[in-house]
Amino acid sequence: MKANFPLRCLSKLNESAPIQRYVDGCLNLTCEYNRTELLEAGAIVPEIKKVALDSVEQEGRFGVKIYFTKNQSYSDKLDAGAEVKVPDLVYTKVELSTPDEALHVQLKECWATPSEDPDDEGTRYDIIKDSLPANNPFESDDAIEIDRNYMEDFAAFNFKAFVWSNNLEAAIYVYCRVTICHEDVESGCPAGPSGNSTKKRDVASPDSLLVASGPIFISKSKKKSCEESNGGCSDVCEMRNDDVMCMCYERRSLAEDGETCQDAEKYELVAGEGDWSFLVYVIAAFVIVVGCLLVWSKKDGKSKDGFPSLI
Question: Which residues, at least 6 apart from 103, have a Cβ–Cβ distance to it below 8 Å?
Fold first, then answer.
């Protein structure tokens, strides 16, 4: 970014003198600012059950920072050493150091790696691609949510905590490719996929900033055993692949916590306030009676009692 300032130095004239001698000085002052900067705010190290987030933020000349927050309000920073259970949500915020309604924060791309190398292609988890939640085929649609993007002051998103398949104790480092635009400059701020921009111009900015947050460190938790408190299971506990698997007795179902069993009958559908079984019995009895009448009345078109045949 360049800013030009013309300066002029002109001596004060003596209007009462018949002649004048002075110097008319002019100076063009140009200031240049680097528009891109790499920020690193720490890393993320995962664990199967608990995730401890230790976020460190750094600021660059671009005035952008990234850090983790406690909840979806994105107002309270996450304390160092806080614990998050897999798959609890990890809330991430990218904001300007100095709020300015004319500056819009645009997240083009965000991803996570198990190392401090943002280009670690060996193991990479995409979070945001082309300004939209990444479409990862191995997870559900609600695993990633963008709460704010292409808007003034800050952008925010969340994703479900996880561990790396090839290294359960590896850290999680989150990186974002960020673009800052000013709504009053000639190019304006391009509209994002959600339309959260004041100027609807399809102009892509070539300049972007790479910011990083993490790591989340996860200490390896002690595995459960069926020998200790039945592994936390309310009914049946079995060991599968060195881990606890809870199961339920007949006509009971496993609750969302994966440990508690509850009566399955309470979830059976009923018709109104009655019972479907009663209706089934009535229909079956009617079919049997009609069948008997049809067979009974076939002889010579009349019944034994002289009544007309039904068929």
Answer: 96, 152, 153, 180, 181, 182, 183
The Cα–Cα gap between 104 and 181 comes to 5
Q: Tokens standing for 50?
A: 């608990």
Pair 114, 123: CB distance under 8 Å: yes
Kindly report whether the global pTM for this prediction surpasses the value 0.85.
Answer: no
Cα–Cα nearest to 112, from 67, 172, 68: 172
Task: Go through 211-232 and write b for each residue having 16 or more CB atoms within 10 A of its CB, e for each that does not.
Answer: bbbbbbbbeeeeebebeeebbb
Q: How far apart are CA 145 and CA 157, in angstroms?
A: 6
Residue 244 neighbours by CB under 8 Å, 6+ apart: 223, 224, 225, 226, 231, 232, 233, 237, 238
DSSP 8-state assignment for residue 188: -
CB 92 within 8 A of CB 65: no
CB environment 132-153: b (16+ within 10 A), e (fewer): ebbeeeeeeeebbebebbbbbe
**Mean pLDDT, all residues of the chain:** 76
Phi/psi at 24 (nearest 5 deg)?
A: -100, 100
- Report which of 5, 137, 4, 154 is spatially closest to residue 77, judged by C-alpha positions: 154
User: What is the spatial distance between Cα 105 and Cα 65, in angstroms, rounded to a whole number?
Assistant: 11
Positive or negative torsion for Cα 70, 72, 73, 74: positive
Peptide bond into 87 cis (omega under 30): yes
Cβ neighbour number for residue 106 with a 10 Å cutoff: 23
pLDDT in tens, 102-153: 888 999 899 998 888 888 877 899 999 999 999 999 999 999 999 999 888 8
Report the phi/psi class of residue 168: left, alpha or beta, with left for phi > 0 and alpha for psi in -120 to 50: alpha
Distance, in Å, from the CA atom of 224 to the CA atom of 215, rounded to the nearest integer, reads 26
DSSP-based three-state secondary structure for 247: strand
Residue with tokens 């292609």: 121
